[in-house]
Write a structure and sequence with these properties.
346 residues; alpha+beta; five-stranded mixed barrel; 15 strands
């Protein structure tokens, strides 16, 4: 087997394209270059075929092995986070999708207000356990940007991005017509939770206050959470403290592995925290009050100061109390200006 043949076989295995499809794409690329007079150097045929493969490989990887065009997928939402680094005000959401050309799987969804998306409507559509129909750019995660393949519950994970054609339509499963994948989704909270835990964010992704360090999010070559944080974990705990800032806040949670404060791992105890436990960063409108028992969904990071934190998309309550704790209007929970506040508040 030649070097190029080995590369084609490896790409077929990682992208779920067939070797024949990849070889046809290489020949089509060579024909395009020749027909349009784009080749301006006299390179050997083998070298040109290798370069055509490199371009085809990039096309496949950057589209996740599927179409890079806007497609419509059903989505069961898990919540959202603020994403102020976008060209305009936007959010980063998460959920479970069922694309036409691949198995159902967990996805993160970058929604950019600069694409003309109504962000307030997007927030309503992406609240935990909302069901909606979404038109967006959908790609498999883990086949680009030098990241490992990420699977959740044995299924591929996906990255979605809004486009100028993005539409979010909330759909009640009871109102979906025959043949609509949304009609197959459970209508009630508990069956939805059970479906998520059994098939997508399974026991392998269950975090406790004893194993949290084993679940820090997979990172890409630049040190960012791979796939916009698609390595989603779940954590079941009770809220023991909280503070809100301008848009997002922090909850501190404990769980059933803690009997006394001595059981709290040293990494979750700090002089800067008035209550030990796992800190959870969450948008204000999705937060719950002290005494709530929650299943929280998000990815875990370790900050530069060594502190572990869950960056939550949202939570499904088991016992719920409204948030009525401290609020600081002049700071954001992910900005540098809240560090002093955090030292004294949570």
């Amino acid at each position: 087997m030649s070097d190029l043949a080995e590369q084609i076989a490896a790409l077929a295995e990682s992208s779920e394209k067939t070797e024949a499809e990849i070889s046809d794409a290489i020949e089509a690329k060579l024909a395009e270059w020749n027909d349009e007079g784009l080749v301006v150097s006299e390179e050997p045929a083998d070298e040109m075929r290798q370069q055509a493969f490199n371009v085809v490989k990039s096309d496949i990887n950057l589209s996740g092995g599927g179409s890079a065009d806007t497609e419509t997928v059903p989505m069961l939402a898990l919540g959202y986070r603020m994403e102020t680094g976008l060209a305009d005000y936007g959010i980063r959401a998460a959920g479970v999708i069922n694309p036409d050309d691949g198995p159902a799987g967990v996805a993160t969804f970058l929604i950019d207000g600069d694409d003309g998306v109504d962000i307030d409507h997007a927030k309503r559509s992406m609240r935990p356990l909302e069901t909606c129909r979404v038109a967006a750019d959908v790609r498999r995660c883990g086949t680009y940007d030098n990241t490992p393949t990420i699977k959740k519950g044995g299924a591929p994970a996906y990255v979605m991005e809004s486009t100028e054609d993005t539409v979010l339509e909330q759909v009640d499963p009871a109102d979906a017509g025959a043949g609509d994948p949304i009609a197959d989704l459970p209508a009630d909270r508990e069956p939805k939770r059970e479906m998520i835990h059994q098939n997508f964010i399974t026991e392998a992704d269950a975090v406790t206050l004893q194993n949290f360090a084993d679940h820090v999010a997979t990172e890409n070559a630049n040190g960012w959470a791979a796939g916009l944080g698609v390595d989603i974990k779940r954590f079941r705990g009770n809220v023991v403290d909280g503070v809100q800032f301008e848009e997002s806040g922090l909850l501190t949670l404990s769980d059933d592995t803690i009997m006394t404060e001595a059981d709290v791992p040293d990494e979750l105890v700090s002089d800067q925290m008035r209550t030990p436990g796992l800190q959870v960063d969450m948008v204000n409108e999705l937060m719950y009050g002290e005494g709530s028992v929650l299943d929280v969904y998000g990815y875990l990071i370790q900050r530069d100061d060594g502190q572990y934190r869950m960056m939550a998309f949202g939570a499904i309550p088991i016992v719920e109390f409204p948030y009525d704790g401290d609020r600081y209007e002049d700071a954001g929970s992910d900005g540098a200006d809240d560090e002093a506040i955090e030292e004294d508040t949570i």
